[in-house]
Specification:
Elements: H1 2-19, H2 24-38, H3 42-48, H4 57-69, H5 93-103, H6 105-114, H7 125-139, E1 143-148, E2 163-166, E3 172-175, E4 186-189, H8 196-203, E5 209-216, H9 225-233, H10 240-255, E6 259-262, H11 265-274, E7 281-287, H12 295-311, E8 314-320, H13 327-330, E9 345-353, E10 356-365, E11 372-379
Parallel strand pairs: 1-5, 1-7, 2-4, 5-6, 7-8
Antiparallel strand pairs: 2-3, 8-9, 9-10, 10-11
Helix pairs in contact: 1-2, 4-6, 4-9, 7-8, 11-12
Protein name: DUF2332 domain-containing protein
Organism: Actinospica acidithermotolerans
Pfam family, one: DUF2332
């Protein structure tokens, strides 16, 4: 039963760290499933049909959400704003949810067993663009962008979006190329002591990109209706603005496709790095993907990045919780974390120039691109 205790804990963590502040519906549903698992109830059977790594809250909720889109007249839809529902979570919600799952197991089970949590939140671009600009300023070379876990490749267009960085004093700094027609401006509050003139060099100058490629076990095409439907299902029901951004970015990506390669990143990353033009620097990046890797897989990725950096100039941008991101390279706690606690996400850079490894903490970042605390500094 130890595995089920771990699964139950995943649901508890999901409530505390992700949905409590922004999704009353998913908070209530996750609490219900967590309690049911602790009591060894019905959802032990539901999740038991999926591999251990698939037994995660976001995947279960997205699988139900996707199937609900095909059954919009079911009672459960009354609770989902994404389907026009306005009913608040109440005492009947657990029963309605469980009945819907039981009635549609034939559709839900395959999604739960085989699906991937590929949110590819467009708003993260507001956090990644300064990092890319910083790499360009640091290396003075064009960038060969290589994303690990790109889903539909939306973040590979980061420089093409239109950004509004808002500072504490109300100042707004515009950034990005603003060439992604149809995609609304992405607003990103700036936390901390960063001033506009400190961020401007990295977001207002054109980014020179020599190539763009994504590496994913299951890349999704923005022209595939079923892939797009799955991405919509991964957006939490109350998040209308996120859904609108996703729709616009998918339409843009369909008009300006980038290369997406299918495969295990650890096996095909070296080839992707080698394919970057000689006058450019490979800029490998990953955001909100490594939590789904095994500890052994993350260790293997670190070894590979170091091997590649020993033979070619390279920059690895990471936007993850420190312990599974920059901390994998530093081996130390986040030096900027308050009271020894991890900031939810840290934006970091691992730079290899002339074979030498240097680590930089570029700042802290809010979930789903909610905010950025830009404060680049070396580690060690």
């Amino acid at each position: 039963m130890a595995d089920w205790d771990e699964t139950t804990r995943r649901f508890e963590i999901f409530i505390d760290r992700e949905v409590r502040e922004s999704s009353p519906l998913y908070t209530a549903l996750t609490q219900y499933v967590s309690d049911d698992l602790a009591a060894r109830g019905y959802f032990l059977e539901v999740l038991g049909q999926a591999p251990h790594r698939q037994r995660i809250p976001n995947l279960l909720l997205a699988s139900v959400h996707r199937v609900l889109f095909d059954h919009p007249n079911e009672s459960l839809a009354e609770y989902y704003p994404s389907l026009g529902g306005s009913r608040e979570p109440d005492e009947n919600l657990p029963k309605v949810f469980a009945e819907f799952v039981a009635a549609h197991r034939a559709e839900i089970d395959p999604l739960l067993a085989n699906g991937e949590t590929q949110t590819n939140e467009v708003q993260r671009s507001a956090q990644l663009l300064p990092a890319f600009g910083w790499v360009q300023a640091t290396t003075r070379r064009p960038l060969g962008l290589i994303e690990i876990g790109p889903s539909a490749g939306l973040l590979l267009h980061a420089d093409r979006y239109d950004f509004r960085y808002e500072f504490a004093d109300g100042t707004v700094l515009e950034g990005g190329e603003a060439s992604a027609d149809g995609v609304p401006a992405l607003h990103c509050p700036i936390h901390g002591s960063c001033r506009p003139e400190q961020l401007a060099p990295f977001v207002t100058k054109p980014l020179r990109v020599s190539s763009r490629v994504g590496l994913d076990l299951n890349p999704l095409s923005p022209t595939d209706p079923e892939a797009c439907a799955w991405l919509r299902a991964l957006v939490w029901p109350e998040h209308a603005e996120r859904r609108a951004r996703l729709e616009a970015a998918l339409a843009h990506a369909a008009r300006r496709p980038v290369r997406l390669r299918k495969g295990d990143a650890v096996r095909i990353l070296a080839d992707a790095v080698d394919s970057v033009a000689d006058n450019a620097i490979p800029c490998v990046f990953v955001s909100n993907s490594l939590p789904h890797w095994s500890p052994e897989g993350r260790e293997e990725l670190v070894r590979l990045v170091r091997e590649l950096g020993a033979r070619r100039d390279l920059v690895f941008i990471i936007k993850e919780a420190h312990r599974i991101g920059l901390g994998l390279f530093s081996g130390e706690p986040d030096p900027a974390a308050p009271e020894g606690k991890d900031v939810h996400e840290v934006l970091g850079a691992v730079v290899y120039l002339g074979g030498r490894e240097r680590l930089f903490r570029l700042g802290a970042a809010g979930m789903h691109g909610a905010w950025l605390d830009w404060a680049p500094r070396p580690l060690g």
